[in-house]
From TrEMBL:
Its EC number is 1.1.1.27. The gene is ldh. Belongs to the LDH/MDH superfamily. LDH family. This is L-lactate dehydrogenase. SUPFAM superfamilies: LDH C-terminal domain-like (SSF56327), NAD(P)-binding Rossmann-fold domains (SSF51735).
Amino acid sequence: MPNPRKAAIVGCGFVGASIAFSLMQRSLFSELVLIDANHKKAEGEAMDLSHGLPYTASMEIYAGDYRDAADCSLVIVTAGANQKPGETRLDLIDKNVAILKSILPNLTATGFSGILMIVSNPVDVLTYAAQRISGYPAERVIGSGTVLDTARLKYELGRHLAVDSRSIHAVIIGEHGDSELAVWSGANVSGIDLNHFCELRGHFDHENSMQRIYEAVRGSAYEIIERKGATYYGIAMAVARISECIVRDEHAVLPISVLPRGEYGLDNIALSLPSVVGHEGVEKVLEIPLSPEESTALHESAAQLHEVIRTLGLS
């Protein structure tokens, strides 16, 4: 049986190390294994993180190998090539699928039976590939999806409306990438229709505002990469939130990357859809109401991913 208080992170670059730091601060696990092709890098990160343990909850953080992940309840994969300035997430496919093919047989050989979370980009394609390569049940293979994109949307709306972003209920679905879409039709602020709340705050040009905010969200990663070379803090917080839902069996709804089984008329693909998340992974993919335009945009996003997946020969 997996140890519910033990997790592993595969890949100790900026993203993996930031996730480890975020998980340590949340005190979700009593044991955290860091795995990297460069074992010394993993050792250094483990040492650095461990020196902060006197100021947080007791836990063990160490560099290990795939055998140490055998009894983990959660394995988080961040290993892969990073997105460079001017590159799209989909440009990373061949390199990162190859890396995934080298990683997963090592994990499956251990008898690992916990939840596998993919964070490396393009996360939707790699989530699909991970399920096909590993053979794990679809509910146990998830991607970080558009959890970060949704946080970015809430942040931008919070700034626009001068309201706490935690009071905003809105979601990004589809590809974690250029074809993602905001579900404006269901957005609200503490139960108040978004457009109505906007008008209460003196904003009436809804269409232009929504387009501006959507473009800011969609382009966030590019803007950050142009300025500092990589994104890692935001995704670390998003992954920690997903991990929290799993460890605490919250049954929370998050737009993680999943393999739908006919929901929205989609299958043989992975993309981000609102899903109930608990200690067994995906409990249910939710079919939320979409406007006709949003439904069309979701299927267009799925079509782009289908085309990419087809070239991988993993179906």
